[in-house]
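Folding Query — how this chain folds
Tokens — whole-number codes for backbone shape
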Amino acid sequence: MSAAMDTESTYSGYSHYSGHSKKAHRQGRDRHKSPRSKDGSRSEKSVTIQTPPAEPLLGNDASRAEEGQDDNWGETTTAITGTSEHSISQEDIARISKDLEDSVGLDCKRYLGLTVAAVLGLLVFLTPIAFILLPQILWRDDLEPCGTVCEGLFISVAFKLLILLIGTWALFFRQPKADLPRVFVFRALLLVLIFLFVFSYWLFYGVRILDSKDTNYQGIVQYAVSLVDALLFIHYLAIVLLELRQLQPVFTVKVVRSTDGESRYYSLGHLSIQRAALVVLENYYRDFTVYNPALLTASKSRAAKHMAGLKVYNVDGPGNNASGQSRAMIAAAARRRDSSHNELYYEEADHERRVKKRRARLVVAVEEAFTHIKRLQAEEQQKAPAEMMDPREAAQAIFPSMARALQKYLRTTRQQQYHSMESILQHLSFCITNNMTPKAFLERYLNPGPTLQYDRDRWFSKQWTLVSEEAVTSGLQDGVVFVLKCLDFSLVVNVKKIPFIKLSEEFIDPKSHKFVLRLQSETSV
């Protein structure tokens, strides 16, 4: 009920600007009665995963039909039942509960790793200081006096610890970008190496210095300095393994979206499969156009229409099974293939014609709307009348003149679910504030952009599943294929190694560039 109320409020606000006719309401009500509604199946699928946010501005016809229903719609409406394509079974409920448990486990694993790393880092920074202070606390009277060299080592330890602290903060203390299914192997090895290294230093310190109460304080300070130097070398090793090793391109990956076949190529270095999947997803949200399932329904509806036009007669009696009818329908569909390409050609041509026509109307409407706005200069603001408006008010004033053309264009290109009225007004206000042209305002709507351009909470996939035959912690190899799955589609990634290139050199003497003019009797020279 709350979603319906949000839908009614959204569309009532938009009706104030564009003014829908009664005919549009009747057509929306007819579409709402269809048992095969595309948006209905989509909402049914999203309910099992998450609650969808507010409805878009230029929404589907079913939501407009809900606005025009009367109070007695439950008594006068004919209910059409059918088999749902997205039913929920007991196994699905168990799988959803397992996913929730896995998400809780991932959070615990992430915080456990951060806790272990923080405790180990604190131990590393306190160890050199403890090496210097413990002799002063336990047997201070027996220590030899610290000379000039010893006091200079104090400054060396202080600055080296400061450099190590800054480097550790820059390398390790970052906001995590994703939750990976497995641990990062190199980072885990570095943590183990640091633990063994500090433990060995403490063991030697306890046996040779604490037990014997060594009185050579300069040697103790020098021992602490050697520990800090070794920690700096380990930090350099971490930079090489975690950052520099993956910079050189070694592999080329081809990423293909399973639904529409859109593909991109990327170059990667020595990475594990899970970290390569993370890089692919980061580039996907930036480079791939936003996934639009409405564009894929045309081919499905066309195929269903062709199959619905076929009639099969059982001439062999009722004893024949359904497999014979299926083969007959497939054979008949193959015979009609020669004529179906003509229908596809004319459908695409008609769609392109309508898109170009409504695009031209939209461009003209936006250009006319922008002509009604004039930016006031600083000296003109003092002399201007009281009708001055801020960018938000100016956007609300000119939006009605372009709303209907924008609505029709977005519905024709099936982009209405990506743009709400609030997002359009914010974008229009942004363009007015920055003195942008109508062409700059229309760029977002004329060409579908990447997923990063749209609402993050609505169109970003909450969870991806990595499917690989190899271990996700193993490195990339030539021929490795792994799949990234989300709710509506999947990304198929194929890894190819960059071939070895052999270049040869050939020297050309600059003095060898000599030419002779060949004259003929028929030339014009």
